[in-house]
Amino acid sequence: MRLKSIKLAGFKSFVDPTTVNFPSNLAAVVGPNGCGKSNIIDAVRWVMGESSAKNLRGENMTDVIFNGSGNRKPVGQASIELVFDNSDNRIKGEYASFAEISIKRKVSRDGTNMYMLNGTKCRRRDITDIFLGTGLGPRSYSIIEQGMVSRLIESKPEELRIFIEEAAGISKYKERRRDTENR
Ligand code: ATP
Ligand code: MG
């Protein structure tokens, strides 16, 4: 499974609609300090359902919306779309047969969120669900940030277990069991 492209609009410093394509398995984003490199990673995390503003380097969830700059007024909403190549069928279940999976999230100033999966409105839950067990997801090990390796080494056994369970593909079933027990 490979990330093919990301579309950003009104998200942090990306006020104008911008599409970033990743044509091969290896891509590097380079640029001067403050140009928006980390904002792209925040966007990936956010669209996959991140619900902590702190993990997105903000205080409130609406801080991801472009809040104006010297000559530009703030905008009312932010949206991100990721397109994954799923030709290796890493995503199982209902979406397994799709060669491409698109996920989209939109947020407005009043804090309302909207999620879409291959063009159909869905719940946040539906998005987090399809990535369970793939190693992808807002807090999974597919995004390795500065300090994360040492945090892993120093983490408590129960925190480490979460990563191992995701790598082993167990997290999906644990989540389903939790869901059933809560019904
Ligand atoms: P470095 O090389 O220092 O890590 P970077 O390329 O990762 O830099 P980012 O942290 O991605 O840079 O981008 C920071 C920029 O994004 C800052 O200029 C900041 O003002 C801008 N920014 C963040 N949130 C918003 C927002 N909501 N509205 C407008 N601009 C924003
Ligand atoms: Mg950075």
UniProtKB/TrEMBL annotation:
Protein's cellular compartments: Cytoplasm
The organism's place on the tree of life at top rank: Bacteria
Residues given in the record as ATP binding sites: 32-39
Record family assignment: Belongs to the SMC family.
Job description of the protein: Required for chromosome condensation and partitioning.
Assembly notes: Homodimer.
Domain description: Contains large globular domains required for ATP hydrolysis at each terminus and a third globular domain forming a flexible hinge near the middle of the molecule. These domains are separated by coiled-coil structures.
Full protein name: Chromosome partition protein Smc
Organism: Pseudohongiella acticola
Gene designation: smc
Residue span relative to the full protein: 1 to 183 of 1187
